[in-house]
Amino acid sequence: MLRRCVRRKIRSVSKQQPSSATAPPLGDMTSDEFRRYGHELVDWIADYFDHIEELPVLAPVEPGELKSKLPSAPPEKGEPMESIIKDIDRLIVPAVTHWCHPSFFAYFATSTSGPGILGELLTAAFDNKGILWRTSPASAELEEVALEWLRQMMGLDAGMTGIIYDTASVSSMHAIAAAREGVEQRIREEGMSGRPDLPLLCVYISEHAHSSIEKGVITLGLGQRGLRKIPTDKDFRMDPNALAAAIEEDKRNGFIPFCIVATVGTTSTSSIDPVKEIVPICEEHTMWLHVDAAYAGSAAVVPELRYILDGCQRADSIVVNPHKWLFTPFDCSVLYTRHMDLLGRAFSLVPEYLRTPEQANVRSGSDYGIQLGRRFRALKLWMVIRYFGHEGLAARIREHCRLARLFASWIQESPQWELMAPTPLALVCFRACPTIEGEPEEIRSKRLDALNEAIMHGVNATGKALFSHTKLNDKLTLRLSIGNIRTTERHVRQVWELMNEQLGLLENLR
Ligand code: PLP
Fold first, then answer.
1. CA distances from 475 to 168, 270, 425, 466 (A)
2. How far apart are CA 215 and CA 98, in angstroms?
3. Cα 48 to Cα 102: distance, rounded to the nearest angstrom
4. Pairwise CA distance, residues 37 & 78, whole Å
5. Are 467 and 481 in contact (CB under 8 A)?
6. Which ranges constitute the DSSP H helices of 220-313?
7. Which DSSP state fits 53?
8. Closest by alpha carbon to 51, among 10, 83, 20?
9. How far apart are CA 488 and CA 123, in angstroms?
10. In this predicted model, what pLDDT tens digit does every residue of 177-194 receive, in sequence order?
11. Taking all residues of the chain, what is their mean pLDDT, rounded to a whole number?
12. How far apart are alpha carbons 64 and 330 in whole angstroms?
């Protein structure tokens, strides 16, 4: 339906004759051709958003289906844009899972936005490689400006300086690398392997921390042996007493506890670790405090939600992903730290061919990470912030939280459903829990896991909505995440109806 509609739109925009022109023998596409297909594709995108609800949220394809429809070898000769665009409609769109669909409620629901897409377009056109300040002064300086704006909107401490990476996984890995540099064990120079003089370096996370932290620890050669997973309380928040005890024990064993990673907005439930209580533990043991606020950090732009970052003002670093909940297209992750010097010490390496006269007086992104060339990601973020403004961004996130509270209230009011975790932001954790008189607990537990999984797959298979699951206290738990710029109350009501329909169908089959 949409495919036909998009094609019609493209044809109607293209008043000119269809062109069979392919690439010229040398040089780029002509500017006339670029203008023509550029306009058509922008129209295509506008139409895609207008009609996105007609598409199934989850791509209804089997593994390998797209690959089997595409040639296994590249074309010898260039092909006309018409046939490329036709294949986007015919082959690519059906294999896309539509994250921008307003009924996408899975994982952490996120979406791009008009100004963000236009920013990406310009980034691709400039194709700047932010290696040094001089290879892209605009990228270097706009990054500083946009991140200072975001810092102010989030109410972070003025001592925090930001830098953009691609993802939170990479931001956190860099934060832990900077923390490791601060341990003063000459790791940059001598490495970690084969060193009997180097005690085990320990990193502390809650058992609900994101897997990216563990991956960062592995990547940095710290080893899973050096990672401590601290238990959480009934609301899935790190237990500070257990944290303090684990650090004490590691110290008694001669290890070096050097970094605590607290999470503000865990992936399973959006729980918020008690950072205020963790800060004194960090201070007592002179440890680095990194805060993973990849998802929830954006919510701090809402004045009444700023409390979620209580204590984070004193953190050594904090990551927030504008590509998660700030309507900025993937990818864009921001690491704030008060120790850019340590980040530089860990990563700066300037060979002769990159030496410049101004290097002492400017900021070059490649000094603060493993990448040499960096994309001009600040442009889209700056355009998003300017277009929506602080108030506009806050209003959208506030509305998502309202919708989540509304959905949670329906769960609470129904005897057939139950909440599985608090709803501090815009993620609801819940499950269906119809009772059977006299059923033993062990059987009930297995039955409810199977029932909830079937509800999820049943709703997702309709193509009308998509949500995902986790396990909490060993119970299969459904997650409804609201974070898409197009999601309204209508979409939330619809998914609630779909869930109840599935529950009814499955209960009738019993
Ligand atoms: N941290 C948290 C709390 C997350 O929820 C996620 C992803 O959902 C990540 C980190 C990883 O994010 P990214 O995909 O940007 O690496």
1. 28, 17, 22, 20
2. 27
3. 12
4. 16
5. yes
6. 240-252, 275-284
7. G
8. 10
9. 30
10. 999 999 999 999 999 999
11. 95
12. 25
For residue 69, the one-letter residue type is K
Q: What is the pLDDT of residues 261-296, one digit of tens each?
A: 999 999 999 999 999 999 999 999 999 999 999 999
Atom 9 of ligand 1, nearest CA residue: 168
How far apart CA 169 and CA 161 sit, in angstroms, is: 19
Cα 221 to chain centroid distance, Å, stands at 25
Q: What whole-number distance in Å separates Cα of residue 332 and Cα of residue 297?
A: 13
Q: What is the pLDDT of residue 16?
A: 54
Pocket probe for ligand 1: among 273, 317, 321, 335, the residue whose CB has the most ligand atoms within 8 Å is 321
For 234, residues 6+ apart whose C-beta sits below 8 A from its C-beta are: none
C-alpha distances (whole Å) from 411 to each of 213, 246, 419 are: 33, 38, 7
Q: 362: CA distance to ligand 1 center in Å? A: 30
Which neighbouring-strand residues pair with 204? 228, 260
User: What's the pLDDT at 14?
Assistant: 45
Whether pTM > 0.85 for this model: the answer is: yes
Work out which ligand 1 atom sits closest to the CA atom of 323.
15
Stretch 426-437: mean pLDDT: 96
**DSSP for 393-406?**
HHHHHHHHHHHHHH
Write out the two tokens for 250.
């590691």
For residues 126 and 277, give the distance between their C-alpha atoms in angstroms, rounded to a whole number.
Answer: 46
Name the closest-CA residue to atom 12, ligand 1.
Answer: 168
- Residue 458 burial (C-beta neighbours within 10 Å; 0-12, 13-18, 19+): middle
Sequence-distant (6+) residues with CB within 8 A of 302 are: 394, 397, 398, 401
Beta strands in 69-172 (DSSP E): 161-165
pLDDT at 11 over 80: no
374 φ, ψ (degrees, to nearest 5): -125, 140
